[in-house]
Fold this protein.
Amino acid sequence: MSRPSSDLASFRSRLKTARHIVVLTGAGISAESGIPTFRGAGGLWRKYEATRLATPQAFAANPALVWEFYHYRREVCLSKEPNDAHRAIAECQKRLASEGKDLTVITQNVDDLHHRAGTTGVLQLHGSLYRVRCTSCKKVWDDRNSPICEALADKGAPDPDTLDAEVAKEDLPHCPTCGGLARPHIVWFGENLDPKVLDATQRYLDECDLCLVIGTSSVVYPAAMFAPMLAARGVPVAEFNIEETGATAALGYHFAGPAAKTVPEALKAFESNEQ
Ligand code: BJW
Ligand code: ZN
């Protein structure tokens, strides 16, 4: 298999003619906003055992611990801003729409930074830190309160060594309708993705004629198979990452470097080409 190209001019010419662009994103796109990734240096899963925090079994065993972790993540992300990569994608989407073309962001991220940058119609494969679901009646609602409940105020990150949690279950967030225990509206390991989100994703992938895959290690399924599947169908796929991933060899382009630099460069050139 030939090596992926890093020829920006070639990528730009693809961008000029594409009509249905899909942008797949992962934690690396938010790294330069100051939000930790999962698997790289400083990554959350390097510090914390994922099975103790991001599985339905973990929540059943210790909901206070899981809430402390997600409360901390909510607070961190609320204090951060979208970066130049999020903004360049939002601007590109607007421009393409004015030309009768479309750009759809399909993200694994739960930080809402694409929305906050102004991108519309974002598909959030793994949910959102700012949505909550009742474990009893299954009602889902938005909650951007800081803190989400008084008992979690001033709690920092859980101690990765002890993973102790002090908040009593009755003081955790509860459903305003039925009073059941609430949980983060996040897709944990071993849980199925929302079938409506997956159906919509499939529709966009089916009609996509150019794909950008930005800041993901491409190890978590099903998201990890989307870009290689498109490439196998002959769709040009460009990876933007600080390092190569398990998917790189199957893709048409690889642009090495921080997304906040490489993505605006790639999309800005597209805009000036059009004038
Ligand atoms: C930069 C940068 C910069 C840094 N610029 N780049 C085979 C088939 C199907 C399923 C499975 C399978 N094998 C195993 C499974 C199950 C599992 C899975 O995939 N496990 C893998 C670890 C192998 N998948 C699931 O359980 C999923 N559900 C499912 O498949 O249901 C069916 C099923 C049911 C029952 C049993 C089995 C299957 C659900 C997955 C849910 C993932 N949830 C998490 C946590 C919740 C969200 C949260 O708390 O925030 O989602 S895990 C975590 O990983 C998070 C992320 O969305 C996800 C992906 O991580 P991402 O975004 O790629 O981040 P990193 O850190 O890994 O990578 C960052 C990248 O950025 C790196 O490449 C850096 O180089 C780069 N980077 N700085 C550009 N400045
Ligand atoms: Zn309820």
